[in-house]
Amino acid sequence: MKLLLDTHVWLWSILAPAKLPRRAKSAINRSSNELWLSPISVWELLVLVERGRLRIEAEPRRWIEQALARTPAQEAQINFEVALRSREVLPMHADPADRILVATALVNGFTLVTADQSLIDARPCAILPAL
What we know:
Blueprint: E1 2-5, H1 7-15, H2 22-29, E2 34-37, H3 39-50, H4 60-70, E3 74-75, H5 80-86, H6 96-108, E4 111-114, H7 117-122, E5 127-129
Parallel strand pairs: 1-2, 1-4, 2-3, 4-5
């Protein structure tokens, strides 16, 4: 299975693995599954730090580089098709990062691992709930 980690799931896997429920943790750790991470998650992390909603131990660029080095995930590309699809999915959803993640999952055949209840309820793509 190809798993796209939602930003909070990626952060939990690094900062608070105990927050991940057993099913999600098992899927993430299963060697037969591919892990993917979108650049939008890096962007979201930077926004959280800038707004003071997340504190990290180092300068943001350095922290992210170290976190990416510890994350056994491939980079999911944001391409023209993802950009186009992001405007077609979840038309009433205000979070552009969520729309890009969903579009990335749809375009690439990924399962989005998320604890975002609004995405779980909407099921705009294949979802693995991390609740």
